[in-house]
Design goal:
With 354 residues, the chain is α+β, with helices and mostly antiparallel strands. 29% of the residues lie in helices and 25% in strands.
Length: 354
């Protein structure tokens, strides 16, 4: 009477035949083992950050209540919760006083940085991946969880194979590591927009967006007030992004194209623009012109010093032109380049620097 499904019948046969006759072995499979797409992305992310000189940190998911409200949370956590002050509290913590589930990876990562400082290590680059938690507004529901990854960098930059004076790590070193990690995951590039962030220094903070303008995190220099809580005496740069969103994003198609048989023509242009004009806006303006033979535009140099008008800086871009089926003539390149320069001048009020 108690046999309702296949498993019940199997149990009866095994009981009569003898459980000791069932051997322990892996089930047969005709397929070769492989990583799931999300795991491939995680491994690519780790390899890229390790190649950039970062070490992986692993922190406790439980933190002290003194961290409440210290860091701005991931956008999806705030969107789901609506109340950034609602934290997951443990009724029976395994460590006395550690009563919260972490809403941000930065609390553990900055503690690791401080631990390095206390042991005399001043040049620190760390990253961590893990889950973050925020409580649900309705009682009895499970907390919201997101997978995140965070970076922290401070101290002197290591530039192997280069002779010259050492320099301190800055915002762009951290930004480059984040972009390298996303590129290794074979995803489209991120966009950065200046913003005001609770735990980051004003003027040295940005919000991170996907190419679809979805906010996924923050990056910048740690605010002086927060740095003082950890007793940091040197600049510390941190970033935290929503790894769950990155893992859900579609990978870029990998397409083969043969090397061009025809040479490229490269032209530089130096423009005086307002200090609030971003490089991303200038590169977008070049792309939006839709010039068929314009293949690429890159930053060459930024100058902010003497002999420039107040509120201005000099930005030098390098634009590449190439045709697939023939060699471009100088007159054609001059015409296309003049069109791009005119677009930049009219859009940003820029002036050509000679």
């Amino acid at each position: 009477m108690d046999i309702e499904r296949e498993e019940d019948l199997v149990e009866e046969v095994a009981r009569h035949a003898g459980y000791e006759k069932i051997t322990t072995e892996l089930p047969p499979s005709g397929l070769a083992g492989e990583y799931q797409p999300s795991e491939r992305k995680r491994r690519a992310l780790r390899r890229a950050l390790v190649s950039s000189g970062y070490d992986e940190a692993i922190s406790f998911s439980f933190i002290d209540a003194e961290h409440d409200g210290r860091f701005e949370l991931l956008p999806d956590l705030v969107k789901n919760e609506q109340d950034e002050g609602s934290f997951v509290t443990l009724t029976n913590p395994i460590i006395e006083g550690v009563t919260r589930m972490r809403p941000s990876l930065l609390s553990g990562l900055l503690s690791a940085v401080r631990n390095n400082f206390n042991h005399g290590t001043r040049d620190v680059r760390l990253f961590e991946t893990g889950r973050v938690f925020v409580s649900h507004t309705e009682r009895g529901n499970l907390p919201f969880e997101r997978e995140a990854f965070a970076l922290a960098a401070t101290g002197m930059a290591t530039e192997e194979g280069r002779a010259g004076a050492s320099r301190e790590l800055n915002f762009y070193d951290l930004k480059g590591a984040l972009e390298a990690a996303v590129d290794a995951m074979n995803l489209k590039g991120l966009r950065f927009e200046a913003a005001s962030v609770k735990h980051l220094r004003e003027g040295q903070a940005a919000r991170v967006h996907t190419d679809q303008e979805q906010a996924i995190g923050t990056i910048g220099r740690l605010d002086d007030a927060v740095a003082a809580l950890y007793k940091f005496r040197q600049p510390v740069y941190v970033a935290e992004v929503d790894l769950s969103t990155l893992l859900e994003m579609e990978e870029r198609p990998v397409l083969y194209s043969p090397l061009s048989r025809y040479p490229s023509v490269v032209r530089d242009v130096s423009l005086l623009v307002g200090r609030r004009v971003t490089l991303a806006e200038m590169l977008d303006a070049v792309s939006e012109e839709g010039i068929e033979f314009c293949r690429d535009a890159q930053l060459v140099d930024v100058y902010e010093g003497a002999n420039l008008p107040e509120g201005k800086r000099s930005v030098t871009l390098r634009v590449e032109y190439r045709a697939e089926m023939r060699t471009l003539r100088d007159e054609e390149v001059d015409e296309m380049h003049a069109r791009i320069v005119q677009a930049l001048e009219s859009r940003f009020g820029a002036t050509l620097r000679v």
